Amino acid sequence: MATKVFTSAEGSEVRALDQANLEIRPGEFFVMLSPSGCGKTTLLRAIAGLESLDAGEIYLGNTRIDGMPPYSRPVNTVFQSYALFPHLTVAENVAFGLEMEGKPRADIRKRVQEMLDLVHLGDRGARKPDQLSGGQQQRVALARALAKSPKVLLLDESLSALDFKLRRQMQVELKRIQRETGITFVFVTHDQEEALSMGDHIAVFSKGKPEQVGTPEEIYDKPVNRFVADFIGDINFITAHKADDNAVTVAHIDLPVEQDLGKVPTGSPLTLAVRPENITLHDPKESAIHGTIISQTFMGTNMRCEVQLDNNTTVLVRVPAPFNTDVLHEHGKVSLSIRPQHLRVVDQ
């Protein structure tokens, strides 16, 4: 249970980590995700030895490392700023840490070439950092961090300085490199799409501790509470009430859900979460939730529709192409259907 308390400029206590507890599996790509100020970077820095904990322990396998100095820990860090030495060549930057350890020159040359080949920069060793693009500089920083064969590689918002296209390319590259090396990657980001596309497991942080840890599919499809549901992608929150058995009532229509609601009294208010792409629009029909399309926006691969239900709740619906123009038009009357596996009770 890691705890870290800072004192603000006004003198009040800020709990950057509040009994945070995580288990990261060897050889996985683990992502810590949250808005700014929720503790993920503080925990990353504590693993690296750049912050000391007020309480709690950090283990790497069976070895406790929170008492070790940073240089003794078998971890390395890639920061948001690449921190490359501008007066050194690419190869010399990658070799720097190995030279500080006094490794034989022949071994260093071989290792440097291996790392540059790994990041697809094998022919750029003689260049200076300012002769490379931002994405290439990021790969040099990655090669330098990997050269010392750390057991864990920590990455702190390390793609945030890149433009959109380069970020997409580096996401693929990082995943490939992690798979090829088998090193445990711990990646900090506030970008939900980045987390979903890269992580084997994701920890969503809030108020100094993880709210949920799971696979990308679990985080997206089965959020444990409203905070996680709201932070990951677009989502609708719909007021409902507990019906008999495992069903909820929305706009006077009973909908089955897969969650076990056996302990919730009948008639209790609930909040449902459902993704816009998991709502289907039909021609109006009985025994369904009814609504009216109040706006629609063409998004290329989908139509983004706002639908006002008969109980005045407004929901967002993403309709995939091809579009049924008989149903999709502003002020058109529609009915909505939602499969049980796509409904999630997030507050009860």
UniProtKB/TrEMBL annotation:
Entry's EC annotation: 7.6.2.11
The keyword Cell inner membrane belongs to this UniProt entry's keyword annotation: no
Catalytic activity: ATP + H2O + polyamine-[polyamine-binding protein]Side 1 = ADP + phosphate + polyamineSide 2 + [polyamine-binding protein]Side 1
UniProtKB keywords: ATP-binding, Cell membrane, Membrane, Nucleotide-binding, Translocase, Transport
SMART domains in the record: AAA
Pfam family, one: TOBE_2
Record-level Gene Ontology MF annotations: ABC-type polyamine transporter activity; ATP binding; ATP hydrolysis activity
Domain of life: Bacteria
GO cellular component: ATP-binding cassette (ABC) transporter complex
Annotated InterPro entries: AAA+_ATPase (IPR003593), ABC_SmlMolc_Importer (IPR050093), ABC_transporter-like_ATP-bd (IPR003439), ABC_transporter-like_CS (IPR017871), Mo/tungstate-bd_C_term_dom (IPR008995), P-loop_NTPase (IPR027417), PotA-like (IPR005893), Transp-assoc_OB_typ2 (IPR013611)
Start and end residues of each ABC transporter domain: 1-232
UniProt keyword Thylakoid, yes or no: no
Gene3D superfamilies reported in the protein's UniProt record: 2.40.50.100, P-loop containing nucleotide triphosphate hydrolases (3.40.50.300)
Record family assignment: Belongs to the ABC transporter superfamily. Spermidine/putrescine importer (TC 3.A.1.11.1) family.
Subunit and interaction comment: The complex is composed of two ATP-binding proteins (PotA), two transmembrane proteins (PotB and PotC) and a solute-binding protein (PotD).
PANTHER family found in the cross-reference section: SPERMIDINE/PUTRESCINE IMPORT ATP-BINDING PROTEIN POTA, SPERMIDINE_PUTRESCINE IMPORT ATP-BINDING PROTEIN POTA
Role played: Part of the ABC transporter complex PotABCD involved in spermidine/putrescine import. Responsible for energy coupling to the transport system.
Protein name (record): Spermidine/putrescine import ATP-binding protein PotA
Gene: potA
